[in-house]
Specification:
Blueprint (H helix, E strand, L loop, with lengths): L10 E2 L8 E6 L9 E4 L3 E7 L2 E6 L3 E4 H5 L20 E6 L3 E6 L4 E5 L2 E17 L2 H7 L6 E3 H20 L13 H16 L4 E12 L2 H17 L1 H15 L1 H30 L34
Helix pairs in contact: 3-4, 6-7
């Protein structure tokens, strides 16, 4: 910012020394004869006189205020500089760049959940993008009483509206509370649209909104991990069978071990089957009337008789 006192000309400019300022107001006593306006890339300059917007200049460059600017000002087109007097005007510089701002919930947001009266408390983090969209709305709602406006001021407004919007879009259409990351893109688009509609009232456009992470309390996260583990256990038998078959196919030391284990398992299954058949053929003592199905002397089937039909052995 260069400015000179007395009857010396002014240089009306904004040397951006911070990258988080959305607008900055040049407010000297008066603009002298011979002064120049400097507009840098990514800046717009707005001349204001008696609180009224006189002209908006968007082209970058260096301009003589008397010859290049005044002829385009609404109520000052015929203004003539005196030897000791100038224009008592304000110049508002607008940063036209797009800003990327990090956000995060200060407190946990309680999302409605079936069976939990208090809801599920979550925290979310991400970024949003914003830029100036309407000069007049920004001047009318904000700039008229501010010397500058920063990204933190925008963030404060956004955060004041964020909690109810998170609740609205996360719980919309019965989304799974434990799988929010899968729906993060769709949720972010919905929040972005609602925030943009609200923030445009002060001339700020929300051009993007993303949810990068969602965290649960330790107790809830433990439940999620336990549920995932139980789901894996349900398929463990099938996994072991597939792993054994794969090892047998590939061969090698691991394959031989797997084959031996498979053989042992098959032997055990065959033995169990034989025991079941023997149990059917020779029931335990005391079962039924205690008569054998086969003659102990000649082996002939008895069919429940008291004496063997072949050898006459008493049964």
């Amino acid at each position: 910012m260069g400015l000179f006192g007395g009857q010396m000309a002014n240089v009306v400019e904004w040397q951006e020394y911070r990258d988080d300022v959305i607008f900055w107001k040049w407010n000297n006593d008066e603009i002298k004869k011979g002064s120049r306006l400097v507009i840098r890339p990514g800046q717009d300059a707005i001349f204001m006189y008696n609180g009224k917007v006189e002209g908006v200049f968007c082209d970058e460059g260096s301009f003589d205020i008397e010859s290049d600017i005044i002829p385009f000002l609404s109520s000052l087109k015929g203004f003539k500089f005196g030897f000791n007097s100038g224009i008592r005007a304000e110049v508002l510089f607008i940063n036209t760049k797009e800003f990327t701002v990090k956000w995060g919930t200060k407190n946990a947001v309680n999302l409605p959940a079936q069976g939990l009266p208090g809801g599920i408390p979550i925290r979310a983090f991400g970024v949003f993008n914003c830029r100036v969209a309407d000069h007049m709305a920004l001047i009318d709602k904000v700039a008229g009483i501010r010397g500058q406006y920063t990204v933190d001021d925008v963030k404060e407004r956004v955060m004041a509206q964020l909690d109810p919007l998170l609740m609205k879009w996360i719980s919309r259409e019965g989304r799974d509370m434990f799988n929010l990351q899968a729906n993060a893109s769709e949720i972010g688009k919905g929040i972005c649209a609602d925030l943009d509609m609200e923030m445009r009232k002060i001339g700020i456009a929300i051009t993007g909104f993303s949810i990068q992470s969602v965290s649960y309390p330790d107790e809830i996260q433990s439940m999620i991990n336990k549920t995932a583990s139980q789901s894996m256990v349900g398929d463990m038998g099938r996994y072991q069978q597939m792993a054994m078959a794969d090892s047998m196919t590939k061969g090698g030391a691991g394959g031989h071990i797997a084959a031996d284990m498979a053989g042992m398992q098959m032997g055990m299954m065959m033995g169990q089957k034989m025991m079941e058949q023997m149990k059917d053929s020779f029931p335990a003592s005391g079962a039924g009337e205690g008569k054998p199905n086969f003659c102990p002397n000649c082996g002939t089937k008895t069919n429940g008789a008291n004496f063997c039909p072949n050898c006459g052995q008493k049964l």
